[in-house]
């Protein structure tokens, strides 16, 4: 478990003091994959780097498995870091060492004997699917392969926590998927707590259980990923979610719409997404509905449906229909400009 | 000048050549042995690095700059008592190696430091994040990653030392420079002067070639 208590970090620059992390409180339960989302400069990277004290907070506490890292001596901190793996956007492998040697470095750091190291390196190469690349140099690998080496190095000493600093931002979509799948698999099989920072909501949707959205050094919204996607409150959160649940209708279609009707965006959450609510609504109100756009996302196997519909008919009927949708725990939003 | 005089001078030339190699070689070895550790200390004690130590960094940096700001010829003279104290003499290639080493150490240390600065900060940070001891980071990350630059720095140091050794020669150090001055300049023998210059040119080219080859060989980027 990771607890950040009143974490505060300021940077001294020539122009004065800049607050990087502004009194952040965060608890990440054991075994969870937790995403921290924000634009660059929001402080998400600083928060992550405070968890293994690569950056020392100005004030506040960092507890990993109940141990206050800031109170540790230099050597104790070094040992504590062996329980906290970290991977990076740009991998940061030692270019003059082979894949095996890069992984072995982490084990050497933990003072393992050479026979243990050889055995463990083979095991880790298997785990990340790079058994055939053991003697290659990083320059000979693709981005995805380099990140796999990074993951193997981070996992070498059986950490309880894995910190991921934009792990897929330098990778193409296909490689991103394979790295995310690997991280998910590691989380499942090793019960590892994973903290991941990203600016891609897609990554959060596919991988994370919990998420926090950061802006100006503060956490502005936090919760289970499904809840955040289904009920975003802050404008920035909505903005981020729109990047994955985006609906664009062609102008030609909009021009043809009946001016008497309404265009509505309906969100089906939880069980509503699995019931025939639209059919019931039409039957009860006697209006017409035309689906213009829509999709159902599965977030951690729970469906979240979003549909854009044009509803036509008499005004009272439309009103009744929308009220019905709201009563079924659906989010209804009348949109005039869909684009 | 004739071929005869050159042949006559051949034993002197070979002796001078050996002396030059000896004083440059000794001071290079000392530059490696002392300059690399000082270069590492300069780097890792700098702000934001894993063994940050402002006092050590400032003091080392100041001393290195101080020695480097003294013109070599003056350093040579200033160090005469030290040389005498260490070796009991101030004449000969061994004596010349003392000021050469003193000049080479800070020179090479700065080159080592600057090649360490070229090492990706993220790679160092990744090593800190896995909980490696400073010594392991130096040995397994910094030195291998900067190896190519450290070798190039050694090439530059060797060639500079060759130039310095000519000056050391004039105050009794011996070597090719001394030969060129004594025969070529004082005796107006241009033939000897040109021969030594050609010898030095060839030597510098060879050092550079070997240095470049070695630097390329270790580079895995």
From TrEMBL, chain A:
The keyword Isomerase does not apply. SUPFAM superfamilies: ACT-like (SSF55021), P-loop containing nucleoside triphosphate hydrolases (SSF52540). One of its GO terms (molecular function) is ATP binding. Residues 2-241 form the ABC transporter domain. Its EC number is 3.6.3.-. Keywords: Amino-acid transport, ATP-binding, Cell membrane, Hydrolase, Membrane, Nucleotide-binding, Translocase, Transport. SMART domains: AAA, NIL. It holds the Pfam family NIL. This is Methionine import ATP-binding protein MetN. It comes from Paenibacillus plantiphilus. The lineage of its organism: Bacteria, Bacillati, Bacillota, Bacilli, Bacillales.
From TrEMBL, chain B:
The keyword Transport applies. PANTHER family: ABC TRANSPORTER PERMEASE, D-METHIONINE TRANSPORT SYSTEM PERMEASE PROTEIN METI-RELATED. Pfam families: BPD_transp_1 (PF00528). Belongs to the binding-protein-dependent transport system permease family. The keyword Transcription does not apply. SUPFAM superfamilies: MetI-like. Residues 17-211 form the ABC transmembrane type-1 domain. Its main location: membrane. InterPro entries: AA_ABC_Transporter_Permease, MetI-like, MetI-like_sf. This is Methionine import system permease protein MetP. It is found in: Cell membrane. Keywords: Cell membrane, Membrane, Transmembrane, Transmembrane helix, Transport. CDD domains: TM_PBP2 (cd06261). It is a multi-pass membrane protein. The chain crosses the membrane at residues 20-43, 55-79, 85-109, 149-171, 191-211.
